Amino acid sequence: MKTAGAKRKPHADFPFIALADIAWQIIIFFLLGATFARTTSLNIDLPGSSEDSAQKMDESITVQASSTAVTLNGKSVDLSTLPAKIKELIGTKKNEPVVFLSAADLTFQRSCEVMLAIQQSGGLLVLQGEK
Description:
5 strands, alpha/beta
């Protein structure tokens, strides 16, 4: 029996159809607003092997360094005179590559000093691993 003074509790009713409409609108918004990444490739002209390039590698300036000695094209040099001697070999050429070969016992500090000397000489530093 119901009493006259008792109120009925309303049922919680949520319109789920509206959620589907909102979800579709959000999906469409993001699809239209998104920028799609374009795949771009880097085109590099790879050098061919020729006798000229092999000859240039044989004629290149090479600095070998270890923890005790520095050699320039096979001749022992002092680190303080290295920039001047490289400048002599480079002459008036621009961007002449200077290959830097490091020994296994070469310390980081010494390596930085040799690379700085090569850069001060005006040569183009080319790093190469241990032989």
